[in-house]
């Protein structure tokens, strides 16, 4: 509850489901979350069953295996938005891309970084990193704010495509 937008009634509920409910409370039925690990095919099937919506994938994950799954799904979709956030101790970045008729605009993380596809990622979660003082609360808050700006743009029918770099005392978008 200290690190994310949760309240006491959310304890015990899947955090993706709890946050989707909060978003929908304020903005209508815009957000759906899946409360289990999925394959690329399951994710594509989930998206295909919702033809009335424009797919927006937001990656706030702690491992490259899931990033690869999200990127593969994004590349498969004819039209979609993909926003991927990652951070370390003091800095981070947000990659934002748009597929329009399978032409990609913006930036995708794997075009800059080598992503490791591990079946069972051993990386620590954000909460575990913060508990060990390896990752600071301010860094996560700045990253969350940057993602919120991206989501706000989408809700205003705009996309801030490209890369946003978040450092300890600055933020740069290019």
Automatic annotation (TrEMBL):
Domain THIF-type NAD/FAD binding fold as annotated: residue spans: 2-144
GO terms for MF: ubiquitin-like modifier activating enzyme activity
Stated name of the protein: ThiF family protein
């Amino acid at each position: 509850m200290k690190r994310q937008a949760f309240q006491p009634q959310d304890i015990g509920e899947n955090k993706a489901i709890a946050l989707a409910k909060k978003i929908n409370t304020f903005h209508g039925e815009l957000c759906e979350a899946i409360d289990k690990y999925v394959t690329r095919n399951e994710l594509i099937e989930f998206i295909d069953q919702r033809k009335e919506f424009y797919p927006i994938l937001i990656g706030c994950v702690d491992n490259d295996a899931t990033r690869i799954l999200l990127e593969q799904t994004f590349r498969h979709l004819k039209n979609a938005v993909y926003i991927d956030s990652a951070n370390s101790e003091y800095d981070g970045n947000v990659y934002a891309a748009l597929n329009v008729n399978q032409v990609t605009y913006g930036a995708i993380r794997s075009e800059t970084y080598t992503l490791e596809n591990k079946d069972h990622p051993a990386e620590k979660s954000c909460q575990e990193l913060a508990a060990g003082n390896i990752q600071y609360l301010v860094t996560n808050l700045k990253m969350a704010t940057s993602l919120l700006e991206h989501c706000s743009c989408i809700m205003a029918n705009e996309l801030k495509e490209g890369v946003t770099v978040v450092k300890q005392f600055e933020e740069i978008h290019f």
